[in-house]
Amino acid sequence: MTEPMTTESTPFGFPLRVYWEDTDAGGIVFYANYLKFMERGRTEWLRALGFNQQVLREQVGGMFVVSETAVKYHQPARLDDALWVTARVQEAGRVSLTIAQQVLLRRQGLPDALLAEGTIRIGWVDSQTLKPGRIPAPVLEALK
Predict the structure, then answer these.
(1) Were 93 and a residue from 4, 22, 72, 137 both cysteine, which residue would form a disulfide, CB within 3.0 to 4.6 Å?
(2) Rounded CA gap, 116 and 120, in Å?
(3) What does the pLDDT read at residue 123?
């Protein structure tokens, strides 16, 4: 088994606005919604590269599934905050990728504030059998 390759790719960024359904009774984003924001950012990143799940299933014969998450919560976001969700490949292996993500608060005239960060491991599965397999080389190259 070969060691995963560590990459230093430029992060993809996706803007999000905090809506009332993202908040709790106190008007702040609760922990679980940071996972939702990261999922949305990752989905948009894959779409920007031409790899939405339908295209992967129909044209490549497989798809990505989340196999592990680790999220560190730093501070809350509030209703109507403008967020920036990043995604970049941290490690790339033959059957899985580790994606590093951050959720940042964007404030005009101020530096971005880190609200949450995490790593998500996604694995490749065959779309017919749902068994793990190797990530096709063209997909892996496009994600690096």
Answers:
(1) 4
(2) 13
(3) 95
Sign of CA dihedral 96, 48, 38, 125: negative
Given this model, what pLDDT does residue 105 score? 95
Query: Six-digit token pair at 64?
Result: 């990505």
pLDDT, mean of each 10-residue run, the chain (144 residues): 44 91 83 89 90 88 94 91 95 94 93 95 94 93 85
Catalytic residue flag (residue 24)? yes
Catalytic residue among 22, 24, 112, 126: 24
pLDDT given at position 41: 93
**């997909």: which residue's tokens?**
139
Contact assessment for residue 21 and residue 54, using Cβ atoms and an 8 Å cutoff: no
Helix and strand totals (H; E) in the chain: 3, 6
